[in-house]
């Protein structure tokens, strides 16, 4: 049986470039506690949740094709609520964008996210699936369409 990485997609009435800019503005839709930079190839950034002893995840941007794809590689993490606190280390969050025309003068973009390495066999899968789904569907989409996200 093939491992299935977590995947989720949304569609927003924005250009691919606008979608990429919103995804890269991690503080606007995912984590209020953000350190580093998340816009250029090899940028490194950390998100934190739950105070100084809580969860953190550090990413490096390892692939960037403007308006099409960005890959965040997890270099370190601490997931305080599970036994394997470093379960995400070595995984990748892959954002792939496909632009299309809504109308002659309007664009839309489908954003497909894959968390490569986050499979049903992982301890945090159900919690992380719920978290990613909320952050993408409820916060990132709202940030793209209303300019106001719901970061933690």
Question: How would you summarize what this structure contains?
Answer:
This protein is α+β, with helices and mostly antiparallel strands and 152 residues long.
- Taking strands numbered 1, 2, ... along the chain, how are they ordered across the largest sheet? 1-7-6-5-4-3-2
What global shape is seen? Answer: globular
Spatial extent as radius of gyration: 15 Å
Proportion of residues in extended strands = 35-45%
- Overall pLDDT confidence: 94
- Give the low-pLDDT segments: none
How would a textbook summarize the main sheet? Answer: 7 strands, antiparallel
Percentage of residues in helical conformation = 10-25%
> What class, by secondary structure content?
alpha+beta
* End-to-end distance: 36 Å
| Total number of strands | 7
Question: How would you describe the overall organization of this protein?
Answer:
With 152 residues, this protein is an alpha+beta fold. It is 23% helix and 40% strand. It is built from three helices and seven strands; from the N terminus they run E-H-H-E-E-E-E-E-E-H. It has helices at 16-24, 26-29, 125-146, and strands spanning 6-12, 33-36, 44-49, 55-65, 69-78, 92-103, 106-116. It has a seven-stranded antiparallel sheet with strand order 1-7-6-5-4-3-2. Strand 2 and strand 3 form a beta hairpin. The mean pLDDT is 94.
